[in-house]
Structure formats: C-alpha cells, structure tokens
Amino acid sequence: MADKSYEIMQSDKIESDIEGYLRDQENKSYLRFITCGSVDDGKSTLIGRLLYDSKLIFEDQLKNLESDSKKMGTQGGEIDFALLVDGLAAEREQGITIDVAYRFFTTDKRKFIVADTPGHEQYTRNMATGASTADLAVILIDARKGILTQTRRHSFITSLLGVKHVVVAINKMDLAGYSKEIFDTIERDYRTFADDMGFSSIQCIPVSALKGDNITESGNNMGWYDGPTLLEYLECVDISTNEENAPFRMSVQWVNRPDLDFRGFSGTIVSGEIKPGDEIVALPSAQTSKIKSIVTYDGELETACKDQAVTLTLEDEIDVSRGDLISDRNNRPEITDQLQAHVIWMHDEPMLPGRPYLIKLANKTISGEITDLKYKIDVNSFDREAGKTLKLNEVGVCNISLNDKVVYEAYKTVPALGSFIVIDKMTNATLAAGMIDFGLRRATNVHWQAVDVDKSTRAQQKRQKPLVLWFTGLSASGKSTIANLVEKKLLALGKHTYLLDGDNVRHGLNRDLGFVDADRVENIRRVGEVAKLMVDAGLIVLTAFISPFRSERIMVRDMLEEHEFMEVFVDTPLEICEQRDPKGLYKKARSGEIKNFTGFDSPYEAPENAEIHLRTADISAEEAADQVIKAIEENYL
After folding, report:
1. Are strands 201-206 and 165-171 parallel, antiparallel or unpaired?
2. Is residue 547 among the annotated active site residues?
C-alpha cells in the first residue's frame, strides 16, 4: 500500500498553508498516459488498482466499489478494480471497455491524467482518440497469451500518433506462475517487434494488477525483478522535449472584437513562444505585422508559450480570420492543397478514393478527396500491401487533394498542425484520422492558366448556355435511349451537344476500372471532370450513367457553376428493368455470375431533389425526352 505519511503531510499542509499547498500542486508536472492492449489484458483493473493503492478513492466511491463488486461477482467477493473505470452499463455487462474513460490523480511528485482505452478491435477508433493527446502509453500484455494482433495494432497506432514513451506492463503474472522466463521471452519479442517504431524509451514491467504486484509496491512474488514499479516509473519518466527553438504557431479560433476600440485574435499556441514586438505573418494571406500585446483574462503577458490560450493584438490592421494561422515571420510553415498522409480508417463504411469528403485541419474545414491509396500497412508485419480502399481499423498511406490551400506542418513536427479528421459530407460522421507526412510540392506549382477565349466567349459563339444533363437510374431504366432522343431534339433546335454514355466511356477513358464501389466512384469523378471541360467549351453535355452514389452526383454538381447542372432521374421500377434486361445482366446477377451489380449486391441511392423526374413506367421514351426538352426550354435555354 502507498505510504500513509504522504496523506497526513498533505492534510496538515492544507489546514496550515492552503496557498502553499495550491502552489505545490500548480508547479507539479503533468503526465498524460493511456492504457491499451488487447481485450481482457487487464487495463481497467490496472488503473483501478493504481488509484486504490495510491489512496486516491473517496470513501463513498470505495463503498460503491465494494457493493458493485459483490453484485457483479466477477472476483468471487473480492474487489473488482475494473469497475472504477468501466462506467458504462454495457461495459460492466460485457466485461470490456467501450469508450475512453479519463481519470485524474496526483502523487507527491506528479499529476496524472490517465485514459483507459478499449481493447476490442471494433473500438480501435476510440483508442486512437485517447492516444492522440498522450505523452506515454502503458501497453498491457497477458503473460499467458503473449503479443497479440491487437497489441501490435495499438503499438503501431501509438507510434503513428507520436507517443514516444512506452511501458509494456506484462500483466497477470500471478496466473503465469510469476515466471521470469515468460517475462523475458515477451520482453525480447516486444522489443524486436517495436524496434522500428521510433519510441524513445521502452520500459517492461512484470505486474499483477489484480494482486497488486509492481503497481505501487514490488511485493514478494518476483524477487528476480529489480526495476521500478509502475507508479515509480510514471513519476520519474522524462517526457520533456527540446522545444526551445520551435517556431511560433497559433491557429486563430476567434476574432475577438468586443467594441470598436479592440481587435484581437484568440487561440491556443501550438508551438514556440511569442512576446510583444515580435514580427509575425498571417497565413494564408501572407500579410505581416508585429505583436502589440498578449492579452489574457488575468491581464497582459510579457511572453506566452505552447499550450497557453491567449489573445494577440497586432500593430497593423491586417486580414486575419478564424482558421488562419499566425506564425513566426521568418520561419513559416508550408502551404499546399495536396498532401501525403497516414490514415487510420475508423468507420464501417470503407474509404473510397475519389469520393468527396470534408477534411478538418486545426480550425478549418474544407472539401477534399483521397485521390490515391498508395498502400496499406499490415499491423503484424508492417509490410506494405496493395489495395484500392481502406476498411474499419485499417491503416494506409494516401494522397489527398483539397479544394483550397491549407497551412500545415508535418505531424511529427507540430502534431496540432499536422493532424486532421475525415468527415462524411452526407451524415457528418467522423470516418478517419490522419497524420500529414508532407505536402506534394508539385501541387503548389500547378496553377490554372488564364486564356483569352473563355467559356462565356465559346458559349456566346454557339448561342447557347453550357449545361450538363446528368441522366441517372438503374441498368436498363432507359437512360441511354432517352438521352439519345434528347440530343437529337437539341440538335434539331440548333444546339451544340455531346453525349457521354456509360458503356462507351468504359471502352476508352475508363477501361481500367471495374465495378467495385471504389471504381464506381472514380468512374464518375473522371466523367465529371470531362463534362466540366466540355461545359468550358460551351457545349450542352448529356451523360447516361447509373452513377449509383448520391455523394458522387453532388460532387459533379459542385464542380460546375450554378445552373450548369440538371439531374435527370430516370425512375424505372426494378421489375420493369429486369423484364427489359437487354444485356441479360439481371439474369446473371440473380444466378451469381455477376458481382457488385447495382440493385442487387451494390446499392443505388435515388436522387432526392432531381430537377427532372421521369417516371418511365407511365410514359414512353419519346414522351420522357419531350419532358426533358420542355424543362430545358423553361429553365435554361
């Protein structure tokens, strides 16, 4: 048990010198650490034991713990320390951690924030969330099982997220006979496995979280181990980094203007330090100024450094907005719209290259897409694997294209400016976390070339407004037939047109693409880019594609200017499409000869607000074409 004299000394000081006690607490260093590893390796039990043995549980908590332990019966009447942190009912029922549980505690040497993270593969995304702010990771390994896949996955994600210090707590030594040979074997295997992960330190400790061995005290069962206990190591591990020469960086979270006489820029400093008179640059505008003052709630500061929340006032009125970055003028970060990054996919829906997503970096959210999955990383062997998509919990290296330039740093340099999340545009669900490796420099050298003959001039010559008519519907719905009739009618009206048909395009431009979801997305992205160029040429473009995903149709619409895109939903019931079946595809799909066929084992997301809705069960192809021409004449021509 922890030394009770510390408790008595602290109580005496609180009574006699409360201000001195508060100063002591304020000056203690902080250590943020996580516990991770595979399911049932004992993470929650270890944290519970650490709090219990450190005398950091209130009396009412202890009574509730004793009561809950008897009720749950998981330890045969003994205290179940895991119940201190497994707070969710579902966690207690299943005996696993689902969410991230944070706990604060303090000793005479240091203050701690510990995150108990899930071990189950399904909740790896929650583990990554806990690791993103940690200084150290305690990775538990069941001495009976050794290193498991989830141990490897958590170690790899921990290293990706920049955690430099690792404690390998080889747990349940009581169930392994307190064997030195087992401990030595696991330590050797782990160090070999983690050799290339870039950890600054790895400390292996044999423990029994349930019995208390080597948690706060050594105990009498492992005399062969002469290293520190877990708490001793956590209290003394050096996590300091050399940031004295780090350049100043602060993302603007709020433009603070309470009245006409004050204009400041509020945010948290993520790197370096700043003082009045320092020269700064606001990015991406690249306007420069000097710091006039550093304002906080408690008054002005002479200097401010990393992790401080401040408001900066400038000597000049320059353009600075929320999401911009204030930086050291002479040591600026890079700006780009193309990135390479490591991506951890955290959603059941797979990543699809070419699909438009929202990318949130620091205080800025912009549209973008993952253009290319360069390779996936096997968490067991670290081998690079080919692939077109990422699934839940998979890690890959990707190229990312953004619709606007961003200010960034490599994640390993300034994590706050090198990390991002990927968000679904339709549902706002968080899909992935990313760590920027570097910018693709070629992107900063590619600019849109201005030309004298523009879209307006080309359209005026043709006496028409450029337009994309996007026909979408199931296979055999009649898209190509109706689009062909519409083009003939437009030509009869003297219009300049071009029809992009799904089958025809797959003979050339998209001949390399299959019919899995990732290829379908890329198919539509390419067609959208071609259609955009044809609109720039002043043409009326007709496209006839199944284009099953709503997000890709929105992507093409967003490529064009307002009133340049008309969605035409060829709404034909599945049973009628099957009756037509000119290519025999539905018959083959039902027999299993064709996989990923839209309407069967691949979804079709019908338009919600198409400009033209053709219900072809009730009208002929000729009548449908006339409806399209009428809508064009009324709204566009």
Report:
1. parallel
2. yes
Would strands 249-251 and 279-283 be described as parallel, antiparallel, or unpaired? unpaired
The predicted model scores a pTM of 0.74
Instruction: Examine domains 249-328 and 455-635 and report if their fold is the same.
Output: no
Each domain of the chain, given as residue ranges in start order, spans: 4-236, 249-328, 335-442, 455-635
> What is the distance between the alpha carbons of residues 177 and 222, in angstroms, rounded to a whole number?
10
- Helical pair 517-536 and 550-559, crossing angle rounded to 10 deg: 20
* Rounded average pLDDT per 10-residue block, the chain, 637 residues: 45 58 66 85 80 62 55 53 48 43 80 75 69 88 92 88 92 94 96 89 93 89 94 90 78 90 92 94 91 92 92 93 91 90 91 92 89 88 87 92 90 89 91 91 58 88 93 92 96 94 87 85 92 95 92 91 93 90 83 80 89 93 95 80
> Residue 266: what are its φ and ψ, rounded to 5°?
-100, 145
CATH 3.40.50.300 holds for 4-236: yes
Q: How far apart are CA 604 and CA 546, in angstroms?
A: 8
Per DSSP, the three-state class of 503 is helix
Q: What's the per-residue H, E or C state across 574-598?
A: HHHHHHHCCCCHHHHHHHCCCCCCE
Helix axes 479-492, 621-635, angle to 10 degrees: 50
Query: Is domain 455-635 in CATH 3.40.50.300, yes or no?
Result: yes
In whole angstroms, give the CA distance from residue 345 to residue 347.
6
d(CA 547, CA 211): 60
Nearest to 519 by CA among 356, 369, 388: 388
Quote the CA–CA distance of 577 and 617 in Å, as a whole number: 10
One CATH from 3.30.450.20, 3.40.50.720, 3.40.50.2000, 2.40.30.10 for 249-328: 2.40.30.10
Residue of 218, 285, 547, 602 with catalytic role: 547
Instruction: Assign domain 335-442 one CATH number from 2.40.30.10, 2.60.40.10, 3.40.640.10, 3.90.180.10.
Output: 2.40.30.10
